[in-house]
Amino acid sequence: MDVYLPIANLSVNGLVIVLLGGLTGLLSGLFGVGGGFLTTPLLIFYGIPPTVAAASAASQVTGASVSGAIFHAKRGAVDYQMGAMMVGGGIVGTGIGALLFRLLEAIGQIDVAIAILYVVVLGSVGIKMAMESVPELLSDRFERLKRAPSKRRHHPLVASLPGRWRFYKSGLYISPLAPVLLGMAVGTLTMLMGIGGGFLLVPLMLYGLGMSAAVVVGTSLFQILFTTIATTMMHALTTNAVDIVLAALLLVGSVSGAQIGAKFALDARPEFLRAVLAAIVLAVALRMAVTLTFRPGEIFTVSPL
């Protein structure tokens, strides 16, 4: 079933795109993170131009995060005060990302920059997750360690920022600059890489800001929803790289895949899931690194007229 993608200016097998969306949705439901960090590289591997892949993946993440944000909001598991700070920073970050995107596009280095960002970000996150999850799987003391109470505290850099506010839902007394700066960083990466940022946000909110685990996922989805909306609008207005046909096909697959993944996740050990996710992330980072070392069969780019 061939489908023409008007922005990418090529024909693809629609079923393959739906299956790619289903795979990222499956992983999203299985591991509890957004699938955007896998959608963009998988599309690039399939032959979609990196600029179109990044822009369209961001719009797909928007649709996929709606149901999750609503679910957590109904449970009262969203810190709207903290989320608003991160959304504000995220919108500023998308503007910064748009400027960088256009600059890199103008000098003809946007495709290389996207690939390098994926290698660095996914490689770092994958190594960190592997270092934490693999010893837990191999350790005989895991059950005892898992039951041991852990003390939640924010990073010393966060404690040094001026002007503290109380975030009652998260149980924090920190400077609002911390979530704003975090939102800006994730917003910039969302614009450049087409990621939702959940795989970065959740650990940073837990271990950097010191937020309560009860509201981390819901607040993360709240931030991702509005930041990816801003990213999609920014791409549509500045880069013209959002392919609505591609995004729609991805969304069809991801919604179904997320439901299946969530069911499997109920029966799996958390440390096993983290180890598998680390392996997948590192594999994608390695594959992206390989693409930087050889000449492609067809050389093309997407640039404004």
Could you describe the 3D structure shown?
The protein has 305 residues and is mainly alpha-helical. Helices cover 72% and strands 5% of the residues. Residues 144-150 have low confidence and may be disordered. It has one domain (13-145, 164-291). Helix 3 (50-74) runs antiparallel to helix 10. It has helices at 14-31, 36-46, 50-74, 80-106, 110-138, 142-147, 156-159, 177-193, 198-209, 213-239, 244-265, 270-291; strands spanning 2-5, 10-13, 165-167, 172-174. The strands form two sheets. It has a two-stranded antiparallel sheet with strand order 1-2. It has twelve helices and four strands; from the N terminus they run E-E-H-H-H-H-H-H-H-E-E-H-H-H-H-H.
Query: Could you say how many structural domains there are in total?
Result: 1
The helix-strand sequence is EEHHHHHHHEEHHHHH
**Number of DSSP strand runs:** 4
Structural class given helices, strands, pairing?
mainly alpha
Q: Main sheet, how many strands, which sense, barrel?
A: 2 strands, antiparallel
Residue stretches low in confidence (pLDDT < 50, at least 5 long) are 144-150
Number of helical regions: 12
- Strand residues, percent: under 5%
Morphology call: globular
Walk across the major sheet and give the strand order: 1-2
